[in-house]
Amino acid sequence: MLEKSIVKHIKQLKQKKFRKEFGEFLVEGFKGVGEAIDSDFEVVLVIIEGNRRDETEMKEIIKKAEKNGVPVEFSGRQDIGDIKTTDTFPGLMAVIAQNQVTPEDITGEKYIICLDSVKDPGNLGTIIRTADWFGIKNILLSEDCVDPYNEKVVRSTMGSIFHVNIFESAGLEHTLKTFKEKHEYKICSLVMKGEDLNKLKATKKTIFVLGSESHGVRKEVEKMSDKNYTIGGKGDAESLNVAIAGGILMNQL
Amino acid sequence: MLEKSIVKHIKQLKQKKFRKEFGEFLVEGFKGVGEAIDSDFEVVLVIIEGNRRDETEMKEIIKKAEKNGVPVEFSGRQDIGDIKTTDTFPGLMAVIAQNQVTPEDITGEKYIICLDSVKDPGNLGTIIRTADWFGIKNILLSEDCVDPYNEKVVRSTMGSIFHVNIFESAGLEHTLKTFKEKHEYKICSLVMKGEDLNKLKATKKTIFVLGSESHGVRKEVEKMSDKNYTIGGKGDAESLNVAIAGGILMNQL
């Protein structure tokens, strides 16, 4: 059974304000916890359901944790209801320290994917996963995106959250201006009426901005953009899902 | 306030077995209900929250329904909890008759998107929406996909469910064999190790098969395929979300 203070701490980490305050977040399941230990994120604590400690997969995680100096605690059945972040607890979870990412940390590569006001956790998680698939490591979030350490986001990244650098801007226009001036990035936005994305030839360092589903890329950013692109449709749908648009874009790069 | 029989009927339509039995499904919200009335689907009944009947958007829907001979009922506050399919009832919903789609109905165009065992409602809905965006009208589902008339699927299509033809196969291998032999379609599957999708040149009538996230395209279908393609990744993610893969494919077509 877990100490009360641990249960309390985990319950708090389900809320954004405590995740910010403690600089930590939660991940559940084998894939997530395994990738976390293998990554350069600091794993603060691994929690395993006590009566499943002898399962092969659990033993592997325990071994891996011990090898990396990560403490392991065992939960009782009565703890599960309090700590789980999904309906069905997969038997293990971990508390992870958030990486402190500076603007400079995301300037190392040619492309940056920037999301403006993306609120849906599944969309953000899927975009992170897709970026990781295409080898894009650097992600810039506007001040009003969903918290990337929200458990739904973390879950839908399928472990890819441990492979990317996410910088959360406090003011997107200002951040983009700095990246343009100081780091010589071009800015390209995906909008409803722009040049055909299939004609994209990105030869320079570029930040690609994807907007929210309801409002698109904010006007100020569209104006700052060096070029605006559109994914051409010919059917009757009003818009594309932002994660799909992101996938098509990243495949193009 | 709604008649008890209507409330009961709607509650039943939240279950797959009753949707199959009655050949009906539910849609909520302005966009969905509006698109339904405008489409060639038969709208059986529109339900509007009584105390919101004077809102401009509601009046428009009522007018549109009357013009199309669709009956409108008004619900009391006490009905909402029983009929709503989302946490926050958007004030209106409709009962729609499912279109009866035969294999022949989806053979009218060059491309068919086929999904093998896709279980996630959000993924199926997003794929339908993306197909609609790219003007692909015909969709073939394996026998074990999530019910396309599930309310979560319907919601994530954002109205696109009313623009496409969905044929639900009772046995995918058999259906594909028939399409190959009788309708002269080629079959292309998206798999983990195939030719680079960017090299795709589909000149002939083709069925594109996307597999489930956990198991990919079933072996029997991979074997039947005329060609297998892969979306090349260079990062550390293990796989792409099936809806993202579908989006990249459809953009390519």
Number of strands of chain A: 10
Tell me the radius of gyration of chain A. 20 Å
The CATH homologous superfamily of the largest domain in chain A is called SPOUT methyltransferase, trefoil knot domain
List SSEs of chain A in N-to-C order: HHEHEHEHEEHEHEHEEHEH
| Shape field of chain A | elongated
CATH level 1 class label of the largest domain in chain A:
Alpha Beta
The fold-level CATH name of the largest domain in chain A is Alpha/beta knot
| Overall CATH architecture of the largest domain in chain A | 3-Layer(aba) Sandwich
Oligomer: homodimer
Please give the share of residues in helix of chain A.
25-40%
Number of domains of chain A: 2
Which two protein chains have the largest interface (Cβ within 8 Å of the partner's Cβ), and how many residues from each?
A-B, 33 and 33 residues
* Mean pLDDT reading of chain A: 93
User: What composes the largest sheet of chain A?
Assistant: 6 strands, parallel
First CA to last CA of chain A: what distance? 50 Å
Main β-sheet, spatial strand arrangement of chain A: 7-6-5-9-8-10
What do you see in this structure?
- The structure is a homodimer of 253-residue chains.
- In chain A, the strands form two sheets. Chain A has a six-stranded parallel β-sheet.
- The termini of chain A are far apart.
- In chain A, helix 3 runs parallel beside helix 4.
- The first copy, chain A, has two domains: 4-97, 60s Ribosomal Protein L30, Chain: A; 103-252, SPOUT methyltransferase, trefoil knot domain (Alpha/beta knot, 3-Layer(aba) Sandwich), CATH 3.40.1280.
- By secondary structure, chain A is α/β, with parallel strands linked by helices.
- Chain A contains ten helices and ten strands.
- Chain A has helices at residues 4-12, 16-22, 30-38, 56-67, 77-83, 121-133, 151-156, 172-183, 219-224, 242-252, and strands spanning 24-28, 43-49, 72-75, 92-97, 111-115, 138-141, 165-168, 186-196, 206-210, 227-230.
- In chain A, helix 6 links the parallel strand 5 and strand 6 (138-141).
- Chain A binds chain B through residues 122, 126, 129-137, 158-160, 163, 198, 231, 233-241, 243-248, 251, and chain B through 122, 126, 129-137, 158-160, 163, 198, 231, 233-241, 243-248, 251.
